[in-house]
Amino acid sequence: MAPDPTPAATGGSPDVTETGPAAGNAKQVCADALAASGKGVTTFLAELGKMLKAAGEGDGKAEYEARQKAEAALATWSNAMKEQAAKATDGRLRTVLTEIGNEVGTMRADIDSVNSAKLDQLQQRLDTLCAS
Questions:
Q1: Measured in whole angstroms, how far is the alpha carbon of residue 61 from the centre of its chain?
Q2: Above 60 in pLDDT, residue 8?
Q3: Average pLDDT of 29-35?
Q4: Which of 12, 63, 81, 87 could form a disulfide with 54 if both were Cys (CB 3.0 to 4.6 A apart)?
Q5: What is the rounded distance in angstroms from the CA atom of residue 84 to the CA atom of residue 121?
Q6: Per-residue pLDDT for 99 more than 70?
Q7: 3-state SS class at 100
């Protein structure tokens, strides 16, 4: 006996309101948000690496400077996500960008402050909304 056909098996489409790409000005907002996010992650990780290296070498001044730059990178990243959220005309995109901005805003220049599971979940939602 064959299994019952499901909408997916019969070519039905999923509920676009839940899983489809964002609408409105999403293309530009997504491009800007992804660029800002990439820059934020790269800068944060580079400065965090410098900070840890300096700490290991006992260079307090370099450690402090790297920590300040890492904190600034997080603030810039968080603000950029919130700015893009304010520009988004798609409510789902606005929500996820706001959540990313808020999550990044809670992070500090300390690896223990990074909730990678939460960031991964938010990134997956953003990837779905920004799919072209």
A1: 30
A2: no
A3: 94
A4: 63
A5: 19
A6: yes
A7: helix
Q: What is the pLDDT of residue 5?
A: 37
- CA within 13 Å, CB half, 22: 26
| Residues 43, 71 contacting (CB under 8 angstroms) | no
pLDDT at 62: 97
Listing DSSP states for 4-62 in one string gives PP-TTTTTPPP-HHHHSPP-TTHHHHHHHHHHHHHHHHHHHHHHHHHHHHHHHHT-HHH
- Residue count of the chain, please give it: 132
Residue type, 116: S
Task: Report DSSP letters for 71-86, one per residue.
Answer: HHHHHHHHHHHHHHHH
pTM for the structure as a whole: 0.79
